[in-house]
């Protein structure tokens, strides 16, 4: 079906449907250079996107960026770095850091002049 009919079925304007397509929130066109035809798969994808926008109270642009973060490793790394810097994402402790902290803890608990026993 054409965009006008698809938009009517989805309860939105053709302009809003084109906007979602420009954001990358629709499956790719099957044939290169062909006009988009909307079938059940495309309608279902748009409806799922609209449902996510409502459930999480986000805009189509925010949803499109979230999809980009999930699909582009460079963007994901940049967003993760920001999340770490602002304290929203906790960095997993590395084994070496754990061992260093353990050694420092053991040094603090030993008394001067006393040697530690090895098992």
TrEMBL record:
Molecular functions per Gene Ontology: DNA binding
GO biological process, one term: regulation of DNA-templated transcription
Domain HTH merR-type: 1-48
Name this polypeptide is given: HTH merR-type domain-containing protein
Source organism: Nonomuraea cavernae
Taxonomic lineage from the root: Bacteria, Bacillati, Actinomycetota, Actinomycetes, Streptosporangiales
């Amino acid at each position: 079906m054409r965009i006008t009919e698809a938009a009517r079925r989805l309860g939105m304007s053709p302009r809003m449907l084109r906007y979602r397509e420009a954001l990358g929130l629709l499956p790719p066109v099957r044939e290169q250079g062909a006009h988009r035809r909307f079938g059940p798969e495309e309608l279902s994808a748009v409806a799922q996107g609209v449902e996510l926008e409502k459930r999480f109270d986000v805009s189509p642009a925010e949803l499109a960026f979230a999809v980009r973060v999930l699909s582009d490793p460079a963007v994901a790394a940049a967003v993760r770095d920001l999340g770490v810097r602002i304290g929203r994402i906790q960095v997993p402790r590395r084994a070496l850091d754990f061992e260093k902290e353990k050694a420092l803890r053991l040094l603090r608990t030993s008394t001067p002049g006393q040697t530690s026993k090895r098992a």
